[in-house]
Request: fold
Amino acid sequence: MNNTVKIIIIVVALAGAAVLIGWSVGGSKPSVEGRRTAYYVCSDPKCATEFEVEPGQSIAPPESPTEICPACKKDWPSRAAKCSACGRHTPMDGHGIAPEACPACGGGPMLTSGA
Ligand SMILES: [Zn+2]
Ligand SMILES: [Zn+2]
Reply:
């Protein structure tokens, strides 16, 4: 085997390795960043339905700026935080900040959709 053939084999092997590395990096799962479950509470005190909206599962029409309550169909839901202990939803305060502890059970932490 002469040196030229050896060099060709090495170059081909390196190129193959580079392709494999590129595939493993580029073939990672598509990003779902910013697409997390959102928590809501209906602002109608007579309804007060707590519901969650999975990414892409919104029932609101595209022109609606808010979600639609699945129970009363009003577009009044408030963004909420979900208690990881008891599962109750609590509306965010006026600044969109979740309460530190759950008003229902005193536990937590409160989960937010982060948006
Ligand atoms: Zn409602
Ligand atoms: Zn709770």
Notes: The pocket of zinc ion (ligand 2) is lined by residues 83, 85-86, 88, 102, 104-105, 107 (CB under 6 Å). The mean pLDDT is 84. Strands lie at 38-41, 50-53, 78-83, 89-91, 110-111.
